[in-house]
Amino acid sequence: MSSPTLSPAAGRSRPARRARRRPLLSLYTLLVLAWLLLPIAVMVLFGFNDTASKVNFTWQGFTLTWYRHLFAIPNLTSALVNSLTIALVVAVVATLLGTPIGLALGRYRFRGRGSTDLLMFAAIAAPEIALGAALLSLFIVLGVPRGYWTVVVAHVAFCIPYVAITVRARMAGHDPTLEEAARDLGAGPWTAFRLVTLPMLLPGVASGALLCFALSIDDYVITSFNAGRTVTFPLWVYSASRTGVPPQVNVMGTLIFVGGLIIAGANVLFSRRRAV
């Protein structure tokens, strides 16, 4: 049987249909980006709102007053400091604990590897409320008073799988022959790891640490279960929303957002330079 052939008109119509689809896809992409960036744009804008009350929902004029009086609310300042320090500690501890797990999962085959891998993904897929409630029950059973360090422990438990999975994915592109070549040239196990393996894993380790920092600083659900009397930035903002959010919240949110962009951009530049 002879195969069916397309007419020249049908062949010419396909590029025309594709050309018509491109503007629609571009418009759809722009609308999605606008929807995602709209809350951030409102936050940045209302950080300059010249309001005389805590109700910061109507535009009343441009001012830099809230940037000059950023730390005028002591409770808000202490809540921000708590969030920043907790996120920093969590990023360091979770990275130190999660990196060896990711390295083992990506390099070695051992009994229980599949179960460990499944456990990492299950911890990521589990709802935060389940992990928060489980940790709360654990602290109550052990008689541990909830506060600053219980939040740190809870966030570390939440963030370790993200570091492990990120490092494991980085290990997929690792060439083991480079480390073997270093060993053949006289390098010991630790020297080969420090000079060959670790620099290749560094982008994955840095990405995992930044992800932990971002997840910790804006977490509300797990923190609300295990914070006790410790107040973090998300908890303070939620409690203030009942009476009115002051403009300093928008300013702090803007600075955190800009800081995240700077760190992410620096990480991308660093990765590109290493690739070159």
UniProtKB/TrEMBL annotation:
Give the ABC transmembrane type-1 domain ranges: 80-267
Pfam families named among the record's database cross-references? BPD_transp_1 (PF00528)
> Which coarse location class applies to the principal site listed for this UniProt protein?
membrane
Mind naming one GO cellular-component term on file for this protein?
plasma membrane
Membrane topology, as annotated, equals: Multi-pass membrane protein
PROSITE patterns, A to Z: ABC_TM1 (PS50928)
Give the GO biological process terms: transmembrane transport
Q: Where are the transmembrane segments?
A: 24-48, 84-106, 118-142, 148-171, 192-217, 251-270
Q: Where in the cell is it found?
A: Cell membrane
Which controlled-vocabulary keywords does the entry list?
A: Cell membrane, Membrane, Transmembrane, Transmembrane helix, Transport
* Database matches in CDD domains: TM_PBP2
Question: Which family, according to the similarity comment?
Answer: Belongs to the binding-protein-dependent transport system permease family. CysTW subfamily.
Name assigned to this protein: ABC transporter permease
